[in-house]
Write a structure and sequence with these properties.
The protein is mainly alpha-helical. It is about 80% helix and about 0% strand. It is built from twelve helices and no strands. The two termini are about 25 Å apart. The mean pLDDT is about 90.
């Protein structure tokens, strides 16, 4: 009951902090932007808005303006009126599709390979130098090579997601499998359980929480990387949409995109968090 009350107080404090932040933002843009307000570069101001060009207001939209624009975008999030005019729902769907394709492909390779590495100290020692060299490489550094060899921007984006997703899952799986208690393996051996049965009935359940932790890390990194990758390759996706709105100087749309990226990232993490909670165990 005490924990529940603490949760309500934390939520109330969060709402209060948000209200203060938005109120200060609204005041700074609309209440404090009179003559003598923040100076805006004349050339940029001329592109942003007539008010900014006249020196009367900052070009940054107020929260009320962003809210009105958000409602307008959500009225028809899946519209298609040309290559550069597609709804924000379509852009997010494209990004999610690329992330899930790269992520699932990485999971299909990283988890079995991590399982084998975790069970074999010899293979672990042999592959460790390659992993340690490749793991710190920025996923975006692979993009030129992917574009040159694959010659398809969409598949290249998926490849970059694959590269950035594979290492956390591989390393966590190998660590989780290698950390299974020897007593449990000895019990399985005493009961004459075969390798496959031991792997599925003892090692996999014991290592599952660690594997899910690696998957949560991977999905977070993948969602971060897709925005930058889509800015590079263009076409569709929330990253491309952000860059396109910057080219159109639509600051409100950029703020909305940042909000959407954060919300989708949160939902992805919470979804895997629920799975992780389902496989968690305590001795």
């Amino acid at each position: 009951m005490a924990a529940k009350g603490e949760g309500w107080r934390a939520a109330l404090l969060s709402v209060l902090l948000l209200a203060v932040l938005l109120g200060a933002w609204e005041w700074a843009v609309k209440g404090g932007g009179g003559p003598g307000g923040p100076a805006v570069d004349p050339e940029l101001a001329a592109l942003l808005s007539p008010a900014a060009a006249a020196g009367g207001q900052t070009a940054m939209p107020a929260p009320s303006d962003i809210g009105a624009r958000l409602i307008e975008l959500l009225r028809d999030p899946f519209h298609q009126r040309g290559t550069n005019d597609q709804g924000i729902g379509i852009q997010i769907a494209w990004s999610l599709w690329r992330v899930m394709a790269g992520f699932l492909l990485a999971a299909a390779i990283a988890i079995p390979l991590g399982f084998v590495i975790g069970m074999s100290p010899l293979l672990n020692a042999a592959l460790n130098p390659f992993i340690q060299v490749l793991r710190p490489v920025s996923p975006l550094a692979w993009m030129p090579l992917a574009l040159y060899t694959i010659k398809d921007s969409n598949i290249s984006s998926i490849f970059v997601i694959f590269i950035c997703s594979i290492w956390p899952m591989l390393l966590n799986t190998a660590f989780g499998v290698a950390s299974v208690r020897k007593e449990w393996l000895n019990v399985a051996r005493t009961l004459e359980a075969g390798r496959w049965r031991t792997a599925m009935r003892v090692i996999l359940p014991a290592a599952a929480p660690t594997i899910l932790t690696g998957m949560r890390i991977s999905i977070g990194i993948a969602w971060l990387v897709i925005v930058a990758a889509e800015m590079l390759v263009g076409g569709t996706g929330i990253g491309y949409w952000v860059w396109n709105q910057w080219n159109n100087l639509s600051i409100a749309d950029i703020v909305i995109a940042i909000l959407m990226i954060g919300l989708v990232g949160l939902l992805l993490d919470r979804a895997l968090g629920l799975v992780a909670r389902a496989v968690a165990w305590q001795e």
